[in-house]
Specification:
The protein is mainly beta. It is 10% helix and 29% strand. The N and C termini lie far apart (35 Å). Residues 5-39 and 46-56 have low confidence and may be disordered.
Length: 268
């Protein structure tokens, strides 16, 4: 389990936040095929952007999710026309079977050492698959949301960039994994090659990804300068990301994830 939600208020954010409630939209999940080759591959391209100099620890499009003043999960920006879409694990924004969407969540892109260089962004329009909300299906532990900041004149993506979302990709790929341990003020970053856990799960061995790293993106072929690339997974899935901090898991990104993304970006 890679998420522990804070029970006490550690930081005062009220002066800069306007908290929004989640808006529920559900995708119709088609039966999954037994064919693990996932022929319906799709890549949704992001445009390059310029970002200010940041600590060379992770992509500026990756950040920490906060609740009650403490960070508890990780999320990242994925490309959209609106420039405001976040990707994380479903269990970071919805309690699963018998539960509901979390409210009062905020996102701090490029967060490090107690500093939020791009400020805090209100998380809303959370979206998970019906299979997660109804039965906590670990094969559907993927969620999307939008991020907004009061008074912002630019979109989040125009400020920090965005990864490209890809579905139906190979099980074995070299990736950069990033996540925020809840006992650390800097993200953990690791590079390794993914492997197939089962038909709808990936895994990767990376040391030091404990509680708090859930939702961290698995990014293939990151640009050496911008550190942006193609996201093929997030920490989650099997045992909510795994019970060993040195091995992480992800639900496989297929047509169900693609459908969630399209519903998120098609909102009015």
């Amino acid at each position: 389990m890679r998420v522990r939600r804070p029970a006490v208020l550690l930081l005062t954010l009220a002066a800069i936040l306007l908290l929004g409630a989640g808006f529920v939209v559900f995708a119709t999940r088609e039966p999954r095929s037994a064919n693990a080759s996932a022929p319906d591959a799709e890549v949704i391209e992001a445009a390059p952007v310029s970002t200010p100099d940041l600590p060379a620890v992770s992509s500026p499009a990756v950040g920490a999710l906060f609740l009650d003043g403490a960070h508890y999960c990780t999320a990242s920006v994925v490309h959209s026309d609106q420039g405001d879409v976040l990707l994380t694990a479903a269990h970071c924004i919805h309690d699963g079977e018998g539960g509901d969407y979390l409210t009062g969540v905020t996102f701090a892109p490029a967060y490090h050492d107690g500093v939020a260089p791009f400020g805090f962004w209100t998380v809303s329009d959370e979206l998970v698959a019906p299979g997660w909300s109804a039965s906590s299906d670990p094969d559907l532990d993927v969620g999307f949301a939008t991020a907004h900041q009061v008074g912002a004149t630019k979109s989040l993506e125009s400020l920090v960039g965005a990864n490209t979302l890809a579905t139906g990709t190979a099980f074995e790929q070299a990736i950069t994994l990033t996540g925020y341990p809840d006992d650390s003020e800097v993200p953990a970053v690791c590079q390794n090659t993914t492997s197939r856990q089962d038909t709808y799960q990936l895994k990767v061995d990376c040391v030091g990804f404990p509680t708090g790293t859930s939702g961290g993106p698995w990014v293939a072929a990151p640009d050496p300068k911008t550190r942006l690339g193609t996201v093929i997974g997030v920490i989650g899935g099997f045992e909510s990301g795994g019970d060993d901090p040195d091995t992480s898991y992800s639900s496989y990104f297929d047509k169900d994830v693609q459908a969630l993304y399209r519903q998120t970006t098609a909102r009015a």
